[in-house]
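Q: Here's a chain of 350 amino acids. Please give me its 3D structure as C-alpha coordinates.
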Amino acid sequence: MLQAIAGARRYVHLETYILRADRTGRLFAAALTDRAHAGVHVRVLYDGFGAFPLSSAFLSDLRKAGVEAVEFRPVRGRRWSWKRWLRRDHRKILVVDGEQGFVGGINIADDYSPREFGGKGWRDTHAVVRGPLVGDLDEMFHTTWHAAGGKPYAPSPRESSESMTGAGAELAMAVGTDLAGRRGIIRRHLVHAIRRARRYIYIANAYFVPDHGLRRAMRRAARRGVDVKLILPGESDVKSVQWAGERSYTGLLRAGVNIHLWQGSHMHAKTVAIDDAWASIGSYNLDYISLFWNMEVVVEIVGDTTPVRLREQFGRDLQRCRELDYNSWRRRPWWGRLRSWFFYRFRRFL
Protein backbone atom coordinates (compact mmCIF):
# COMPACT_ATOMS: atom_id res chain seq x y z
CA MET A 1 0.00 0.00 0.00
CA LEU A 2 2.80 2.39 0.85
CA GLN A 3 4.58 1.54 -2.41
CA ALA A 4 1.40 2.17 -4.38
CA ILE A 5 0.93 5.55 -2.69
CA ALA A 6 4.55 6.48 -3.36
CA GLY A 7 4.02 5.78 -7.06
CA ALA A 8 0.79 7.79 -7.38
CA ARG A 9 0.72 10.28 -10.25
CA ARG A 10 -2.85 11.59 -10.25
CA TYR A 11 -4.76 10.76 -7.05
CA VAL A 12 -4.93 8.69 -3.90
CA HIS A 13 -8.22 7.78 -2.20
CA LEU A 14 -7.93 6.18 1.24
CA GLU A 15 -11.00 5.11 3.23
CA THR A 16 -10.42 3.48 6.62
CA TYR A 17 -12.32 2.71 9.78
CA ILE A 18 -9.35 3.11 12.13
CA LEU A 19 -6.67 5.76 11.66
CA ARG A 20 -4.08 6.17 14.39
CA ALA A 21 -1.30 8.69 14.89
CA ASP A 22 1.08 5.86 15.81
CA ARG A 23 4.15 4.63 13.93
CA THR A 24 2.10 3.05 11.14
CA GLY A 25 -0.17 6.06 10.89
CA ARG A 26 2.84 8.36 10.61
CA LEU A 27 4.31 6.20 7.85
CA PHE A 28 1.12 6.59 5.85
CA ALA A 29 0.90 10.28 6.69
CA ALA A 30 4.44 10.82 5.37
CA ALA A 31 3.62 8.96 2.15
CA LEU A 32 0.37 10.87 1.64
CA THR A 33 2.00 14.20 2.46
CA ASP A 34 4.81 13.55 -0.03
CA ARG A 35 2.30 12.89 -2.81
CA ALA A 36 0.25 15.96 -1.91
CA HIS A 37 3.40 18.10 -2.13
CA ALA A 38 3.99 16.61 -5.58
CA GLY A 39 0.61 17.85 -6.78
CA VAL A 40 -1.27 14.56 -6.44
CA HIS A 41 -4.89 14.83 -5.25
CA VAL A 42 -4.96 13.02 -1.90
CA ARG A 43 -8.26 12.35 -0.14
CA VAL A 44 -8.53 10.54 3.20
CA LEU A 45 -11.85 9.42 4.69
CA TYR A 46 -11.84 8.03 8.23
CA ASP A 47 -14.60 6.99 10.61
CA GLY A 48 -15.33 9.25 13.56
CA PHE A 49 -15.77 6.39 16.00
CA GLY A 50 -13.08 4.03 14.71
CA ALA A 51 -10.44 6.77 14.64
CA PHE A 52 -11.45 8.40 17.93
CA PRO A 53 -9.55 10.10 19.44
CA LEU A 54 -7.32 11.20 16.57
CA SER A 55 -4.64 13.80 17.25
CA SER A 56 -5.61 17.24 15.98
CA ALA A 57 -1.93 17.93 15.27
CA PHE A 58 -1.78 14.81 13.08
CA LEU A 59 -4.77 16.00 11.05
CA SER A 60 -3.48 19.57 10.91
CA ASP A 61 -0.17 18.43 9.41
CA LEU A 62 -2.00 16.42 6.76
CA ARG A 63 -4.24 19.31 5.79
CA LYS A 64 -1.39 21.83 5.74
CA ALA A 65 0.34 19.58 3.22
CA GLY A 66 -2.72 19.68 0.97
CA VAL A 67 -4.33 16.38 1.96
CA GLU A 68 -8.13 16.55 2.08
CA ALA A 69 -9.14 14.68 5.24
CA VAL A 70 -12.81 14.13 6.11
CA GLU A 71 -14.32 12.50 9.20
CA PHE A 72 -17.33 10.26 8.62
CA ARG A 73 -20.01 10.94 11.23
CA PRO A 74 -18.11 12.55 14.11
CA VAL A 75 -19.05 11.16 17.52
CA ARG A 76 -19.15 14.64 18.95
CA GLY A 77 -21.36 17.49 17.81
CA ARG A 78 -24.94 18.67 17.66
CA ARG A 79 -26.06 16.08 15.08
CA TRP A 80 -25.59 13.14 17.47
CA SER A 81 -28.19 10.35 17.41
CA TRP A 82 -28.27 6.62 18.11
CA LYS A 83 -28.59 5.84 14.40
CA ARG A 84 -25.64 8.02 13.50
CA TRP A 85 -23.66 6.54 16.38
CA LEU A 86 -24.26 2.92 15.36
CA ARG A 87 -23.98 3.24 11.58
CA ARG A 88 -20.22 3.46 10.96
CA ASP A 89 -17.97 3.34 7.92
CA HIS A 90 -16.16 0.06 8.52
CA ARG A 91 -14.70 -0.18 5.00
CA LYS A 92 -11.00 -0.36 4.21
CA ILE A 93 -10.38 0.88 0.67
CA LEU A 94 -7.33 2.33 -1.06
CA VAL A 95 -7.45 3.37 -4.71
CA VAL A 96 -4.41 4.78 -6.52
CA ASP A 97 -4.79 6.47 -9.94
CA GLY A 98 -7.73 4.21 -10.79
CA GLU A 99 -5.20 1.48 -11.56
CA GLN A 100 -4.68 -0.29 -8.24
CA GLY A 101 -7.18 -1.02 -5.51
CA PHE A 102 -6.75 -2.48 -2.03
CA VAL A 103 -9.53 -3.96 0.08
CA GLY A 104 -9.73 -6.25 3.09
CA GLY A 105 -9.50 -6.10 6.86
CA ILE A 106 -6.40 -3.98 7.47
CA ASN A 107 -6.79 -0.59 9.16
CA ILE A 108 -4.11 2.09 9.47
CA ALA A 109 -2.67 1.33 12.90
CA ASP A 110 0.17 -0.56 14.59
CA ASP A 111 -2.14 -3.46 15.47
CA TYR A 112 -2.01 -4.55 11.83
CA SER A 113 1.69 -4.00 11.28
CA PRO A 114 4.12 -6.97 11.46
CA ARG A 115 6.03 -7.45 14.69
CA GLU A 116 9.33 -6.95 12.86
CA PHE A 117 8.08 -3.43 12.01
CA GLY A 118 7.18 -2.71 15.62
CA GLY A 119 3.49 -3.64 15.33
CA LYS A 120 1.32 -6.19 17.09
CA GLY A 121 1.25 -8.57 14.15
CA TRP A 122 -2.49 -9.23 14.01
CA ARG A 123 -3.46 -11.93 11.52
CA ASP A 124 -5.31 -10.25 8.67
CA THR A 125 -5.93 -10.54 4.93
CA HIS A 126 -5.94 -7.76 2.36
CA ALA A 127 -6.22 -7.98 -1.42
CA VAL A 128 -4.73 -5.88 -4.22
CA VAL A 129 -6.85 -5.74 -7.35
CA ARG A 130 -6.44 -4.35 -10.85
CA GLY A 131 -8.79 -3.94 -13.76
CA PRO A 132 -12.41 -2.71 -13.86
CA LEU A 133 -12.97 -3.75 -10.24
CA VAL A 134 -10.85 -0.78 -9.15
CA GLY A 135 -13.51 1.52 -10.61
CA ASP A 136 -16.16 -0.11 -8.40
CA LEU A 137 -14.09 0.58 -5.30
CA ASP A 138 -13.45 4.14 -6.44
CA GLU A 139 -17.17 4.69 -6.98
CA MET A 140 -17.91 3.48 -3.44
CA PHE A 141 -15.34 5.92 -2.08
CA HIS A 142 -16.80 8.75 -4.18
CA THR A 143 -20.33 8.15 -2.85
CA THR A 144 -19.28 7.97 0.80
CA TRP A 145 -16.94 10.95 0.45
CA HIS A 146 -19.84 13.16 -0.63
CA ALA A 147 -22.16 11.70 2.03
CA ALA A 148 -19.56 12.66 4.65
CA GLY A 149 -19.39 16.24 3.37
CA GLY A 150 -16.16 16.03 1.38
CA LYS A 151 -15.38 18.66 -1.24
CA PRO A 152 -17.03 17.61 -4.53
CA TYR A 153 -14.83 16.22 -7.28
CA ALA A 154 -15.45 14.61 -10.66
CA PRO A 155 -15.07 10.81 -10.65
CA SER A 156 -12.33 9.35 -12.83
CA PRO A 157 -13.17 7.54 -16.08
CA ARG A 158 -13.73 3.82 -15.54
CA GLU A 159 -11.49 1.19 -17.07
CA SER A 160 -13.12 -0.98 -19.74
CA SER A 161 -13.93 -4.61 -19.00
CA GLU A 162 -11.70 -5.72 -21.88
CA SER A 163 -8.59 -4.27 -20.25
CA MET A 164 -7.97 -7.21 -17.92
CA THR A 165 -8.10 -10.55 -19.71
CA GLY A 166 -5.82 -13.52 -20.19
CA ALA A 167 -3.62 -15.37 -17.71
CA GLY A 168 -4.18 -14.46 -14.09
CA ALA A 169 -7.53 -12.73 -14.64
CA GLU A 170 -10.56 -13.84 -12.63
CA LEU A 171 -14.18 -12.85 -12.46
CA ALA A 172 -14.71 -10.58 -9.49
CA MET A 173 -17.11 -8.01 -8.12
CA ALA A 174 -17.07 -5.53 -5.27
CA VAL A 175 -20.13 -5.84 -3.04
CA GLY A 176 -20.88 -3.19 -0.47
CA THR A 177 -23.48 -2.32 2.13
CA ASP A 178 -24.22 1.39 2.23
CA LEU A 179 -26.44 4.08 3.68
CA ALA A 180 -29.20 3.46 1.11
CA GLY A 181 -30.61 0.35 2.76
CA ARG A 182 -28.68 -2.43 1.02
CA ARG A 183 -28.01 -4.07 4.37
CA GLY A 184 -28.24 -7.78 3.59
CA ILE A 185 -26.61 -8.14 0.17
CA ILE A 186 -23.24 -9.52 1.39
CA ARG A 187 -24.97 -11.99 3.69
CA ARG A 188 -27.28 -13.19 0.90
CA HIS A 189 -24.34 -13.84 -1.40
CA LEU A 190 -22.51 -15.76 1.33
CA VAL A 191 -25.52 -17.90 2.26
CA HIS A 192 -26.07 -18.71 -1.43
CA ALA A 193 -22.44 -19.78 -1.82
CA ILE A 194 -22.64 -21.95 1.32
CA ARG A 195 -25.79 -23.65 0.02
CA ARG A 196 -24.05 -24.42 -3.29
CA ALA A 197 -20.92 -25.85 -1.67
CA ARG A 198 -20.13 -29.51 -2.38
CA ARG A 199 -16.59 -30.07 -1.05
CA TYR A 200 -15.49 -27.54 1.55
CA ILE A 201 -16.27 -24.21 3.20
CA TYR A 202 -13.35 -22.50 4.95
CA ILE A 203 -14.18 -19.32 6.85
CA ALA A 204 -11.86 -17.09 8.87
CA ASN A 205 -13.63 -14.30 10.73
CA ALA A 206 -12.77 -11.89 13.50
CA TYR A 207 -16.13 -11.19 15.13
CA PHE A 208 -18.40 -14.19 14.83
CA VAL A 209 -21.99 -13.87 16.06
CA PRO A 210 -23.89 -15.44 13.15
CA ASP A 211 -27.64 -15.04 12.76
CA HIS A 212 -29.99 -18.01 12.66
CA GLY A 213 -30.09 -18.33 8.87
CA LEU A 214 -26.32 -18.34 8.52
CA ARG A 215 -25.93 -20.94 11.28
CA ARG A 216 -28.56 -23.11 9.64
CA ALA A 217 -26.81 -22.91 6.24
CA MET A 218 -23.50 -24.01 7.80
CA ARG A 219 -25.13 -26.86 9.76
CA ARG A 220 -26.93 -28.17 6.69
CA ALA A 221 -23.72 -28.02 4.65
CA ALA A 222 -21.86 -30.07 7.27
CA ARG A 223 -24.68 -32.62 7.45
CA ARG A 224 -24.60 -33.21 3.69
CA GLY A 225 -20.91 -34.04 3.88
CA VAL A 226 -19.25 -30.69 3.15
CA ASP A 227 -16.04 -30.05 5.11
CA VAL A 228 -16.98 -26.90 7.06
CA LYS A 229 -14.15 -25.34 9.03
CA LEU A 230 -14.06 -22.04 10.92
CA ILE A 231 -11.02 -20.16 12.21
CA LEU A 232 -12.05 -17.74 14.95
CA PRO A 233 -10.07 -15.70 17.49
CA GLY A 234 -8.84 -17.60 20.52
CA GLU A 235 -8.57 -14.31 22.41
CA SER A 236 -10.56 -11.48 20.86
CA ASP A 237 -9.83 -7.80 21.42
CA VAL A 238 -13.59 -7.38 21.98
CA LYS A 239 -14.44 -9.92 24.65
CA SER A 240 -18.18 -9.24 24.66
CA VAL A 241 -18.42 -10.22 20.97
CA GLN A 242 -16.42 -13.40 21.54
CA TRP A 243 -18.61 -14.40 24.49
CA ALA A 244 -21.81 -13.72 22.54
CA GLY A 245 -20.52 -15.74 19.61
CA GLU A 246 -19.73 -18.73 21.82
CA ARG A 247 -23.48 -19.15 22.22
CA SER A 248 -23.57 -20.65 18.69
CA TYR A 249 -20.64 -23.06 19.06
CA THR A 250 -22.57 -26.00 20.56
CA GLY A 251 -25.10 -26.30 17.73
CA LEU A 252 -22.44 -25.92 15.05
CA LEU A 253 -20.14 -28.49 16.63
CA ARG A 254 -23.00 -30.96 17.06
CA ALA A 255 -23.83 -30.67 13.35
CA GLY A 256 -20.24 -31.43 12.35
CA VAL A 257 -18.83 -27.93 11.83
CA ASN A 258 -15.17 -27.81 12.86
CA ILE A 259 -14.21 -24.77 14.96
CA HIS A 260 -10.55 -23.83 15.34
CA LEU A 261 -9.39 -21.08 17.69
CA TRP A 262 -6.43 -18.97 16.59
CA GLN A 263 -3.55 -18.95 19.05
CA GLY A 264 -1.35 -15.88 19.35
CA SER A 265 -2.03 -12.42 17.99
CA HIS A 266 -5.64 -11.49 17.24
CA MET A 267 -7.31 -13.13 14.23
CA HIS A 268 -8.79 -10.16 12.34
CA ALA A 269 -9.20 -11.63 8.82
CA LYS A 270 -12.58 -11.85 7.07
CA THR A 271 -12.20 -14.45 4.32
CA VAL A 272 -14.21 -17.28 2.79
CA ALA A 273 -13.01 -19.98 0.40
CA ILE A 274 -15.40 -22.52 -1.12
CA ASP A 275 -14.67 -25.52 -3.40
CA ASP A 276 -11.60 -23.96 -5.10
CA ALA A 277 -14.15 -21.92 -7.04
CA TRP A 278 -15.47 -18.98 -4.98
CA ALA A 279 -13.84 -16.67 -2.47
CA SER A 280 -14.53 -13.50 -0.52
CA ILE A 281 -12.11 -11.01 1.04
CA GLY A 282 -13.20 -7.83 2.77
CA SER A 283 -14.22 -5.98 5.92
CA TYR A 284 -17.44 -7.88 6.63
CA ASN A 285 -17.70 -9.65 9.99
CA LEU A 286 -20.27 -12.37 10.62
CA ASP A 287 -21.99 -10.40 13.35
CA TYR A 288 -25.03 -8.22 13.75
CA ILE A 289 -23.13 -4.93 13.60
CA SER A 290 -21.92 -5.71 10.07
CA LEU A 291 -25.35 -7.06 9.09
CA PHE A 292 -27.53 -4.24 10.41
CA TRP A 293 -25.35 -1.19 10.90
CA ASN A 294 -21.89 -0.87 9.40
CA MET A 295 -20.99 0.14 5.87
CA GLU A 296 -18.88 -2.76 4.57
CA VAL A 297 -17.23 -3.97 1.38
CA VAL A 298 -16.03 -7.35 0.15
CA VAL A 299 -14.53 -8.55 -3.10
CA GLU A 300 -16.07 -11.79 -4.33
CA ILE A 301 -13.98 -13.86 -6.74
CA VAL A 302 -14.93 -16.70 -9.05
CA GLY A 303 -11.89 -18.48 -10.47
CA ASP A 304 -9.25 -21.10 -9.93
CA THR A 305 -6.50 -18.96 -8.44
CA THR A 306 -7.59 -16.83 -5.48
CA PRO A 307 -9.89 -19.46 -3.90
CA VAL A 308 -7.03 -21.97 -4.06
CA ARG A 309 -4.59 -19.49 -2.52
CA LEU A 310 -7.02 -18.77 0.31
CA ARG A 311 -7.57 -22.49 0.87
CA GLU A 312 -3.80 -23.02 1.09
CA GLN A 313 -3.45 -20.06 3.46
CA PHE A 314 -6.26 -21.46 5.58
CA GLY A 315 -4.39 -24.76 5.84
CA ARG A 316 -1.27 -22.98 7.07
CA ASP A 317 -3.31 -21.01 9.58
CA LEU A 318 -4.83 -24.21 10.98
CA GLN A 319 -1.37 -25.16 12.23
CA ARG A 320 -1.53 -22.23 14.64
CA CYS A 321 -5.01 -23.07 15.93
CA ARG A 322 -6.55 -25.21 18.66
CA GLU A 323 -9.55 -27.26 17.59
CA LEU A 324 -12.61 -27.30 19.82
CA ASP A 325 -13.95 -30.70 20.87
CA TYR A 326 -17.74 -31.03 21.09
CA ASN A 327 -17.78 -33.09 24.29
CA SER A 328 -15.23 -30.89 26.02
CA TRP A 329 -17.10 -27.76 24.97
CA ARG A 330 -20.34 -29.11 26.43
CA ARG A 331 -18.57 -29.66 29.77
CA ARG A 332 -17.29 -26.09 30.04
CA PRO A 333 -18.04 -24.30 33.36
CA TRP A 334 -21.55 -23.08 34.03
CA TRP A 335 -20.40 -19.50 34.38
CA GLY A 336 -19.03 -19.61 30.82
CA ARG A 337 -22.43 -20.72 29.51
CA LEU A 338 -24.18 -18.04 31.54
CA ARG A 339 -21.78 -15.38 30.28
CA SER A 340 -22.44 -16.37 26.66
CA TRP A 341 -26.19 -16.37 27.23
CA PHE A 342 -26.05 -12.89 28.76
CA PHE A 343 -23.97 -11.20 26.06
CA TYR A 344 -25.92 -12.91 23.30
CA ARG A 345 -28.96 -10.93 24.48
CA PHE A 346 -27.17 -7.76 23.31
CA ARG A 347 -25.81 -9.18 20.03
CA ARG A 348 -27.37 -6.46 17.86
CA PHE A 349 -25.26 -3.77 19.53
CA LEU A 350 -21.88 -5.48 20.17
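Q: Can you summarize the key feature?
A: The first strand starts at residue 11 and ends at 16.
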